[in-house]
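Complex record, two chains
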Amino acid sequence: MTLSAVRPQSDAADLPDVAGLAALLPAGTILTDPASTARYSHDEAEWAPWAQPLAVARPTCSEGVRTIVRWCLEHGVPVVPRGAGTGLSGGANAVAGGIVVSFERMAAVLRIDPVERLAVVQPGVVNDDLRAACAEQGLWYPPDPASSPWSTIGGNVATNAGGVCCVKYGVTGDYVLALEVVTGTGELVRVGRETAKGVAGYDLVSLLVGSEGTLGLVTEVTVRLRPARAPEQTVVGFFGSLVAAGEAVAAVARAGIVPSALELLDQHCLDAVNAWKDLGIDADCEAILLARVDAPGAAGAAEADAVLASFESSGASFAARSDDEAEADAMFAARRLAYPALERLGPVLTEDVCVPVGRVPEMLARVQAIGVQHDVLIANIAHAGDGNLHPLIITPAGDEAARVRAQAAFDDIIGEALACGGTVTGEHGVGLLKRAGLAAELPLAVLDMHRAIRRALDPHGVLNPGKVVG
Amino acid sequence: MTLSAVRPQSDAADLPDVAGLAALLPAGTILTDPASTARYSHDEAEWAPWAQPLAVARPTCSEGVRTIVRWCLEHGVPVVPRGAGTGLSGGANAVAGGIVVSFERMAAVLRIDPVERLAVVQPGVVNDDLRAACAEQGLWYPPDPASSPWSTIGGNVATNAGGVCCVKYGVTGDYVLALEVVTGTGELVRVGRETAKGVAGYDLVSLLVGSEGTLGLVTEVTVRLRPARAPEQTVVGFFGSLVAAGEAVAAVARAGIVPSALELLDQHCLDAVNAWKDLGIDADCEAILLARVDAPGAAGAAEADAVLASFESSGASFAARSDDEAEADAMFAARRLAYPALERLGPVLTEDVCVPVGRVPEMLARVQAIGVQHDVLIANIAHAGDGNLHPLIITPAGDEAARVRAQAAFDDIIGEALACGGTVTGEHGVGLLKRAGLAAELPLAVLDMHRAIRRALDPHGVLNPGKVVG
């Protein structure tokens, strides 16, 4: 294998002939027609830059992925891995002259082991499909990003996706035991283990999780599972102000309760959902909190009571345990529908900051002030229980001035999150949208450590160039 | 700062004058008298090689650690970090011509935050001391290695230490949120975060945890805490054979129970403990299992019943829920005392393999067969619930032939663990004793990834050279 430097940009005259790669793979693996390359050119981060790729590869096996990476190494062609394209930071956005590797045809659940409590899956398996397959055996795969009906385990691994139940059960990375990976030198290797514990060497699994395809292309994932849990109980609180809802979140933490969900939606979200699909949620308030607890039996009831007491002591205008499961499910459906409902109003710039739980009220107040200051509509959904806020900045389609103001608001929110001791991305990843934020968050010496690791594992610079760190 | 290549070995004529370093630090920081350098020359891995260090440094602050590392970089001197020296793989063993950095004088709990549920500590804090400090505020730091009365959080981080409750609550790395580190280029940096979630950049925290001081020297640790949990209930089972006890472990997993402890002790351990301290445990059996469960209220009682049923269906000669807390504590005390009790019989070569839980019975049978085959005494303690076995090979003091046979048994156990789909080290780390095992476990391409990362973060090769990977 001879290696070339990665081409800095697309230059048609200079591009290698992808037919050579196509010939190495089963027919139908490589797509080059403009409709296909356009369809795979970016994820859901509308505001991040992207380019039409040279080609799209849809391999059906790990060896196929290795063949693609080796060809890219030989020809100095960038490789951009892609799950379902539901990412919100541009991590899967195509690079000019590069090849997008879509894992849609590697979507098998290979094995579920009820004794070791693990599942082995291909990266293209949809999150909800894995959960359903596990449930059939009395097992549970917890990580549940809002994109779970569409997003894939491979994409979840690439971004270390969070979700709703993560406040109690942790994020994707907490469940990844082992990975099969094509490395930046074109090797197909396994890292990690199938045992409950293990410290044989550096934790390469955790290093790869969340690295957004910049340190290797994941071709198989082994995840840890839990036994199915007790049924959840729901507590709902309505609040006259965002800040009061934030105070209630901090009160739950102070009470020593770990809810299995603690979500915040503001009035803008509820209005947008109600205008789109009438879920029958009467919301005469500025924010609602949706909490769930899942301790078994009487302990769960005590948890629910403690959450309720925290809501009431924080000034909820109404708070109740929901005994009506349909009603509770409608509330959580509203939370899940908030993002697409808001997108109907115009392009949405999605924030993803995370602050210490005790700073949530303060941070929500700062977000509101930023909206006023820049004259932009900011709706708020939040995994409030772990301080992960998603201010959604909505601009009217085609309004360029509003778009500029939205960008300024986005930058200010990042600045305020850092001032609150927070981070620029709680669960969406750095991709392209948070590269400046990352540079603001990390000291230069730590960025240098990132670059050194990247050079070590992607010595030829072909793996998703331009993402995370330069 | 000018840099020198690391000296390959001690050569008195060629060694730098440590007085130059001592002059940069408060009086008493640097020890060079032979009694001191001998005292810090190795950890508890008796069989691993070690050397008398050039000096011992006992810094009192992070800046002091940086000063030491920078001086070592300038003079090409190896740096070996050391916690309490309770390690069992030789990771803290001194290197000829090197400096041992002991964190014993950096032992403060700096902050416990009950709302964010985290603690910030210096690396020299003893594990049990942190747990006690947290308990005063209704909080709990779970990782509980058997060395917890002596071992330090810094050492626990270096090895990613496990423990008894890890079967339900995870290992040290699952609790580390952030680290302050002196890097291989002499920078003092922070990695990680204080928020519940965060994906800003690569997971350098997990990479550093378990890296045994080869990628940086940890000078401060931020750990996640849990609320205090419900009281535990204990179930004890006596078994006529090791294999039957192993079957009971697999039966508990199949029953969908996650115990908060599931420990195995064999007759050799019980005999040794009884001969040392009479704990009143009558053990007419080949192995006992000690299980604990901690679901709250009736759910916990149901868990205990399910564990009991698993023990009985696997052929326990006696099994019971222990309502006598003193009796239950005595059982767990025996588990904790097993290692020092066995050491009274002669040098102990400690194994630390981990296999899939379903393979525990098979692996225990293989260990017994290896003991017979090599004519060595092998006692077994095990964190059986997560498949982490500690066969302890005991040889009479001074019996060189037995020592050679023990080494052969050690190697065979590693081989059998790998054949069972296991790992060569579940929680003790690679250090020196498991370097060959690591090379057997990992493919060459994965070892190359380790080396590339090590070169990236320790470009001058001063950080604990010779440990983990070359």
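Note: The CA atoms of residues 49 and 367 of chain B lie 25 Å apart.
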